[in-house]
Structures are given as C-alpha cells and as structure tokens.
C-alpha cells in the first residue's frame, strides 16, 4: 500500500512539474483564469514590495528569447521581467542555459534521427559559439543558485515519494536496473528542479534579487551589480546549506551533495533540450529509440555509482 501511494504521489508530482513547464498542458488541466489568479497571489508579496520601493523590473535570465517551446510566443528582442506575466515566465525559454543548449541539440537531433554519427565532428565549435559570449556567466551564476536551492527541495521530494521509487528500482533485475534507475533519476530531477525553479522565479528572482540589486547598485556600477548579487546569494545559500547538511546525513558529504545538485540541474537542461528538439521531428526512426535507451543506461549507471543499490535484507 505504501508503494502504491508513493508511486501515485511521484506520478502526480511529475505531472504537476510538466504542467508548470508546458503552459498549454497546464491550461488544459485548469482554467487560465484560475492559473493567473494563483500566480497573482504567489507574487502579491513581491509586487507590493516593488510598488513600495519603486524598484524597476528586472531583465530575464536570457537576453534573447526564441519562440517559446512551452506554448507561448516570446519576443526575440530584449524583454523585461514585467512582460513575462503569470505562469509563462516559468517556461523553458527563461531557464538559464536552456536556449543555448536547445540551439545545439536542434542541430544534432536530425543527425541522430538519421543515424549520422559522423556528423558530430563540429559539436565543439557549435558549443563554443553557443556558450562563448559574456552573457553566459550570468546564466551560470543562476544555475549554481538553482542547484544550491534544489538540495533541500530534492531531500523533501525523496522523502515524500521518490526514495520508495528508488527502492523499487533496486529490486529490479540487474539488466533492467540501470534503465529503471535512469527513469527514476530523470523523474526526480525534473520534480526537484521544477519546484526550485518555481520558487526562484516567483519569489526569489523578483523579491530577494531585486532588493539586493538595488542595494548594490547604489554604490556599484550597473554592469557589475547583477553578478555581484548572484555571487552574494551563492555565498549565503552555501553557508546555510552547509549548516543544514552538517546536521543531517545525506550522501556522505556537503561536497557530494553540491556536485550532485549541479549535475541534477545540468541533466534537467540537457534532457528537456533534447526532448523538445525531438518533438519537433515529424518522423522519428529507430535510431532515436537506441539513443534514448543509451541515455537511460548512462544516467542510470552514473546514478548507481553515486547511490549504489542496497542489498535486500533477509
């Protein structure tokens, strides 16, 4: 009974996370007016604070936004935070490093679909072009902040449902176990990062980041202010997490927890970049199935190395 409840809860959390990421899916599950009203209530504190202080709206993570993959159309020019209203600002196009990664994956999913392995020779050049400009550092800072914030969220998600799911994968056949663990890892990472992203975009990004930016901008140049704020937030979160993790036993060490958190966010970005790119392909071939199985195998094996399957107690 416990396993059934945990499976249902894990599936519900995953569905809710996907609904937040894919706006059209959320609008099919709930009325648009109800969704907008909920987001307005979530943002009420931040909006009231900004109105009292007269703080200007912050620019989004990405300076240039392509057409939205989560159902909305996003302007390709510079866009302010106030223009990304409601639930739309939780879309993939605003997630740090996503649009850069998705740009690369779109070039190679067609080669994967055609089985053209030799076509990957220019991937280093494409990656350099995608991640080579100066604006990438702001997104890297945001990725680190999200990763650090996701650690307590991940611990909560595991406690609620996914620890039981992981136990079930440990009992699977040795040949199937890496694939099952890969699926569980992706699902848990999706839920953890999405919940963290929701908090980051709806509360931290508007309230805390805006406050700190205004404070630092009073005696710092505007170009340096945002990065200085990000570094300050990273230091504060790191100190708080070290204090928390010192009181808990989680994966053996603080360093391991931080590294796995970063890996979890990177996995989230890469996974959905490939997923959304594959969804743009009309006729998928069996090469894609091989690629997916290979990806699940690699992810599962890495996760098993980080968290080995426990032997059954007799």
Task: Please tell me about this protein's structure.
The chain has eleven helices and no strands. The chain is mainly α and 314 residues long. The longest helix has 41 residues, at 177-217.
Estimated helix fraction: over 70%
- The share of residues in extended strands comes to under 5%
> What's the total helix number?
11
| Parts with pLDDT < 50 across at least 5 consecutive residues | 53-83
Characterize the biggest β-sheet.
none
* SS-derived structural category: mainly alpha
How would you state the average pLDDT, rounded?
77
By DSSP, the count of extended strands is 0
Q: What's the N-to-C terminus distance? A: 21 Å
Descriptors:
single chain, 314 residues, mainly alpha, 0% strand
Give a quick precis of the structure.
This protein has 314 residues and is mainly α.
Layout of helices and strands, plus pairs?
Layout: H1 2-21, H2 23-29, H3 32-42, H4 44-53, H5 98-114, H6 123-131, H7 136-170, H8 177-217, H9 222-246, H10 254-279, H11 286-306
């Amino acid at each position: 009974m416990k396993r059934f409840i945990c499976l249902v809860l894990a599936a519900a959390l995953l569905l809710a996370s996907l609904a937040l990421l894919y706006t059209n899916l959320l609008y099919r599950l709930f009325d648009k007016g109800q969704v907008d009203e909920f987001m307005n209530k979530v943002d009420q504190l931040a909006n009231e604070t900004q109105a009292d202080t007269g703080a200007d709206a912050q620019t989004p993570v990405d300076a240039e936004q392509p057409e939205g993959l989560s159902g909305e159309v996003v302007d390709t020019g510079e866009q302010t935070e106030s223009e990304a209203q409601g639930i739309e600002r939780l879309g993939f196009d605003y997630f740090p490093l996503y649009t850069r990664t998705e740009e690369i994956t779109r070039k190679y999913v067609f080669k994967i679909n055609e089985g053209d392995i030799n076509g990957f020779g220019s991937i280093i050049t494409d990656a350099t072009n995608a991640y080579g400009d100066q604006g990438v550092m702001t997104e890297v800072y945001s990725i680190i902040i999200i990763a650090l914030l996701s650690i307590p969220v991940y611990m909560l998600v595991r406690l609620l449902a996914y620890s039981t799911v992981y136990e079930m994968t440990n009992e699977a056949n040795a040949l199937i176990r890496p694939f099952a663990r890969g699926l569980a890892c992706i699902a848990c990472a999706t839920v953890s990062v999405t919940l963290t992203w929701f908090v980051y975009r709806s509360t931290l990004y508007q309230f805390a980041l805006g406050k700190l930016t205004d404070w630092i901008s009073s005696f710092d140049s505007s170009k340096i202010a945002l990065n200085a704020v990000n570094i300050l937030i990273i230091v504060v979160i790191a100190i708080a997490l070290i204090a928390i993790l010192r009181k808990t036993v989680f994966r053996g060490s603080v360093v391991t927890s931080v590294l796995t958190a970063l890996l979890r966010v990177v996995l989230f970005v890469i996974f959905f970049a490939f997923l959304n790119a594959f969804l743009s392909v009309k006729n998928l071939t069996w090469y894609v199935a091989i690629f997916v199985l290979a990806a699940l195998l690699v992810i599962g094996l890495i996760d098993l190395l980080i968290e080995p399957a426990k032997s059954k107690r007799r």
